[in-house]
Structures are given as C-alpha cells and as structure tokens.
Amino acid sequence: MKTILIQLDTDPLPSSFDRVVAVDAGVDKLFCYGSVTPENVIGLVHGAMFTRGPADLKNTAIFVGGSDVTAGETLLQKVIDTFFGPVHVSTMMDSNGSNTTAAAAVLALGQHVDLSASDVLVLGGTGPVGERAAQLLAREGATVRVASRSLGRAQTVCDRIAERVPGSRLAACENDSETTTNNVDAIIAAGAAGVQFLSQDIWSDIESLKVAIDLNAVPPVGIEGIEVTDKAADKTGKICYGAIGVGGFKMKIHKAAIQKLFTTNDAVLDTEAIYEIGQELLND
After folding, report:
1. Backbone angles phi, psi at 245, to 5 degrees
2. Homologous superfamily assigned to 101-246
3. 30-87 pLDDT, tens digit each
4. What CATH code is assigned to 4-97+250-283?
C-alpha cells in the first residue's frame, strides 16, 4: 500500500521546502493544502481517518507546516482533537522548521559540551526556534539564559518552559552583550533573519565560551565572524557552527521524522519527539 502524506499549511501557498523534503524522505503520494485553519481542517482530517482500514492507517500521515508557528501549534491540537478511539493517523508539526532546527542545534552543541553542566545563552530566545532550543536545553539539565529585546517577553518564555520542564534552571535577560554573556559556556543565536547580536570582538573575548552556534543564514549573520558553512570550525579557540553547518543534520532529522510517521498510526511528532529522533540518529 502506498504511503500518503497530507501537508496542511497555515500559509496560502504550501511550503515548497517541506514538499521537497517529503519527496526525498520517500513518501509515495503527497497531498498539499494551503490556508488551513482549525475551522476548515476537520473534513481533511476525516478524509485521512476514514478511507483506510485500521490495519492500514499507518500508511497515511499528516504534516502541519507554515510560517506561523503559533498557528501551526493551534492547528496541530485541532487535528489531534479530531481523532477518536483507535482511528488515528500519525501527525508531525514543524512550522517554519522550528522543531527540527532547534533539535539539530542542541544536539550539535551536545557533541562538544556536557549540557547538564553548561550555562547556555539563547539569543532570540523568544522566537520559535529560540524558545524550542531553550526548552530542549532545559530538558537536558542546562542552565539557560533566554535573551530578548524585551525582558518581559523573555520572562514569559521562561515561565512557559518551566511549566513544561519542572525543575529547569532558567533566567530571562535582555539582548545586552555586556551583561548576558558573562561566564557562558555556549551561545545559540536564533533570532530573526538579518539581525546581528554579537560582534566578533565581543564573543571571541569571552574566556568561558566553548561553542557558538548561529542559525541565521541571511546577512548580516547573528554572530559576526561565523560563516554560514562553518561546522565545528575552530575560531579563536571556540567551536563554531553556522546555519548550513547545522542545516545538514536538521535535514536528516526532518527526513527521519517523516519516515517514522509511517511506522505507526498514532505518533505525534512535536518538539521533544523530534529531538528524540535526532538522538537516535546520533546513536546509530
């Protein structure tokens, strides 16, 4: 029986990026719908649920995407709420690549430092990737500084993560390089495209800094002096990753997650589930 992935995109035009990855992951048939909302999604979900028998439902899956991560999360919850009894299909949410990118960044960092003993600064920590990276770091036991232009927004994110990860060590701070970078072991820059957080002379002088990861590929990069293609590059004694340097592993995680959808009919691949897939890839 052919595998079918139903791509539900909150944007008017379904993402071509997500479609290419689905094809490369080996999906037999790909159905794409744009401008999907909680109000119009029920019929699409029912179409996935009721066209195949229970034993064959693992061959149908749903992917929730789009540029608006909050809208994607809301849509994912509506999809899950539409299922009932044993009539499910597996579902993945990766709006704006937020879950796969955050997972790849944290797993790359974990190759060089003991996360449970590290103090990590997440610049752009209130954005979709930054918040998810901070959540995953907290889950691994790191001390996490969530930085934003707004201290209030940073604190809101810390409060949300604390609810999801009891006992997490979190601190909200503003994007002030002179106060937020003291004694950090690692930095992940996950801000908006074209926003530079740190100049090279500042981060290269942080004696405690071991790893710097910049997830912005659009000039100017988020951390000056890190090239988008850097992958575990040694710069002034720091291990550095650029967006493409992390992106290769992000793509592996994305493809593996798509493939995992078709191993069962009741998987929900969200931030932590996608992170676990990345861990499995590293351990293989």
Report:
1. -60, -35
2. NAD(P)-binding Rossmann-like Domain (3.40.50.720)
3. 999 999 999 999 999 999 999 999 999 999 999 999 999 999 999 999 999 999 999 9
4. 3.40.50.10280
